[in-house]
Amino acid sequence: MVPIERPENLSELVFSYVMAPLNEDVFGRARVLAIEAKEKFYAKVIFIDEGISAIVALDALIEMKSSFFYHPWQAFAVAIFGCEPARVLNGNLLTLLSKEKPDRTWDEAATQELRRMLLKFPFVQVEAIHDSTSTNATGDVIRVLMWGVQTPKVGVSSDESRILLNPFFAFRCRALVDYKREFTSAVEQEIFEAASEDQEDLESQIEALPVWRVVLPDQ
């Protein structure tokens, strides 16, 4: 294992590809999203084949072999087409005529409800919306129709065994989600971040890091 080279300006590491500890015995392909300076230096990384993020000490990162760069990502960021966080200001729903534009993020309750919905299906099918693009940029988000698919049965067509989740999600979270039925292309839909406590909780995350996310084995 070859530790990563550290440039004099550590910000140059942001968006670079590395191998990061996925668990105690396995390293996964990852991309650096941010550098945090505490008692030592840490990186927030996203595992590009698993779609999960983690805080990892720079001392626990290793170089990615050049051959690994040629494999496409196995995880992609998507947005549920037609669904946006509800317009809420001081606890009140905004009217469409309001000139105020508060920050809108996905409420944790909506995120949890989506997880529960997806767990009810053995398979999930996604269909990219026209004008969505896929590139190598971390910020690219593909707008999709998302279908929950039941286990295929004899005599049941594929269309009958799947349920479109976009409007279903909007209905289940109707106090938290605006459903834009009028959208016809991906460019009409804005992208909103999920509400996150990562920054507020950074200290406790670092304190809870296992040894294998702080130093390389045998160090």
From TrEMBL:
Residues of the Tudor domain: 14-80
GO CC terms in record: cytoplasm
Matches recorded under InterPro entries: SNase_OB-fold_sf, Tudor
Pfam families listed in its UniProt record: TUDOR
UniProt protein name: Tudor domain-containing protein
Lineage, opening ranks: Eukaryota, Metazoa, Ecdysozoa, Nematoda, Chromadorea
